Amino acid sequence: MRHLILAGAALLALSSVAFAADISYEPPAPVAPAAPTGFDWNGFYAGVHGGYGWGSGTKDADFLDSLSGGLFGVQAGYNYQVSNPWLVGFETDIAYSGLSDSVGDTALDLNWIGSTTGRIGFTYDKWLFYGKGGVAYGNLEAKQAGLGNDSQWAIGWTAGAGVEYGFTKNLTGRLEYDYVDLGKKTVFEGTPAQSEVGATSNAVKAGLNYKF
What we know:
Layout: H1 2-24, E1 43-59, E2 62-83, E3 86-103, E4 106-124, E5 127-144, E6 148-166, E7 171-187, E8 195-211
């Protein structure tokens, strides 16, 4: 009988311990997933672009009113996010240009076009909306029957705007519009055909950048 009493007491004690353990046990709280971080626009980048340009050129009294052609070039720059969502930066680019026009025995080609600009942008995660402005430069080549050709580098100004999207943390794509005014340069100086040439152009460009 005593053995039965002791066994019952032991069983009761074990049941009490198990019950107390069940009460005190708390399963671990589920770990919340890390909040996604915003896209990082900061740093250097470089890339390529292509597009189409159109505009007008002047050669004294002859008006060349349909400059047009393709563009293909490269760009490099730096972005700095001063505070969310604002970004500032700078960029330089150079492109081979097929913009040209001719009237009679006179022709004008815009062989190269480039710019160095400042940028200010508004970011929304993987989107960047920006405006730009600065110095533009280009190679103007005038052609005249009997005299050959004369090319000059001209310097003017540019302004534009665009939108850029981050495909991955390193690869972005963009669509951009630019207006360029290269002013005027003297060609065939010292000859009977001496004249002032100039060009203005509009361009729509698409490009890809790699962020370092």
